[in-house]
Amino acid sequence: MLHNCSVQHLTPPAESVISSPSLVTVQSPTVPIVELSPPSPHPTPSAESSTPSAESAESAASVSAESPIPSVSAEFSTPASPSQTTSSIPVSAASHIPDPATLAPDQPPSASHIPAPPPPQPQVSPLVHTHPMQTRARNGIFKPKLYHTNLTDYTYTEPPTYQAASKYPHWCTAMNEEFSALQRQKTWSLIPLPPGKNVVGCKWVFKLKRNSDGTISRYKARLVAKGFHQQYGIDFAETFSPVVKPPTVRLILALAVTYNWPLKQLDVRNAFLHGILKEEVYMQQPTGYVDSTHPTHVCQLHKSIYGLKQAPRAWFESFTTQLLTLGFQPSSADSSLFIYKDGPIIAFLLLYVDDIVLTGNNSFFLSQLITSLSQVFELKDMGKLHYFLGLQITRSSQGLTLTQTKYATDLLTKHNMLNCSPCKTPCVPNTRLSTTCGKPLTDVHAYRSLVGALHYLTFTRPDLSFAVHQVCQFMQAPTDIHLTAAKRILRYVRGTIDNGLFYTPGPISLSAFSDADWAGDPNDRRSTSGLLVFLGNNPITWSAKKQLTVSRSSTEAEYRALASASAELCWLRTLVKDLGLYLYDPPILWCDNVSALAIASNPVFHARTKHIEVDFHFIRERVLRKDLQVKFVSTVDQLADIFTKGLPSPRFQDLCSKLLVPVDSIRLRGDDEVNDTLVK
Question: Can you give the residue ranges of the Reverse transcriptase Ty1/copia-type domain (predicted)?
Answer without folding.
Answer: 186-428
